[in-house]
Amino acid sequence: MSKPEKQAELISLVILVILLITGIAVYFVLPDQIAIHVNEEGIADRLDGKSTLLMFPFLGLIISVAIAMIIRYWKRYDEEDEYGVPKHTMNIRIARLAKVLAMTGLLASLLESIKTVYYTSATIGTVCFIAELLLVSAVFAFVIRQALVLFKAKQ
User: Fold this and answer.
1) What are phi and psi of 82, to 5 degrees?
2) CA pair distance 96, 129, nearest whole angstrom
């Protein structure tokens, strides 16, 4: 596994752990009914059970396992092309980057949901917004850098 691939795996694992910890920790402090949508006037117009927020960590686990299984399959049945390079090398790298993006999206969605639940608290909303912004910016920069590396390697 190359250094960029190790970095992608580590980043997606760290984000998944944060997603799991945040999802489970928030679950125990929320009321049974939470606001899942706030209209433009700042009034909660849709409520649901707090277990709705557990779907984000659950989806993160499913995506991680699914992509790990796909990568394992590609490595197991990988054939070399006429130049001796494994055919699925680029697919594996792209799958790892997709996993990073998926974990980022799930964590950003969870933070957005927490912000919606606490829509009356400016402090929690601001913290969630800043965390989302930093998370998405950092991952976007990482993915763009890796995409450029992959593009250079392809040429």
Assistant:
1) -65, -15
2) 26
pTM: 0.78
Question: Backbone phi, then psi, for 84, in 5-degree steps?
Answer: 85, 15
Q: Tell me the chain's radius of gyration from C-alpha atoms.
A: 19
Element (H, E) at 23: helix 3-29
Distances in whole angstroms, Cα of residue 37 to Cα of each of 24, 148, 152:
21, 38, 43
**Sheet strands (E) in the chain:** 33-38, 44-49
Indicate the SS3 state at residue 119. coil
Q: Give average pLDDT by consecutive 10-residue segment, the chain, 155 residues.
A: 82 91 87 78 77 88 92 81 74 86 87 74 77 84 80 64
Provide the pLDDT for residue 67: 92
Q: Mapping DSSP to helix (H, G, I), strand (E, B) and coil, where does residue 80 land?
A: strand
Q: What are the residues whose beta carbons fall under 8 Å from the beta carbon of 126, sequence distance 6 or more?
A: none
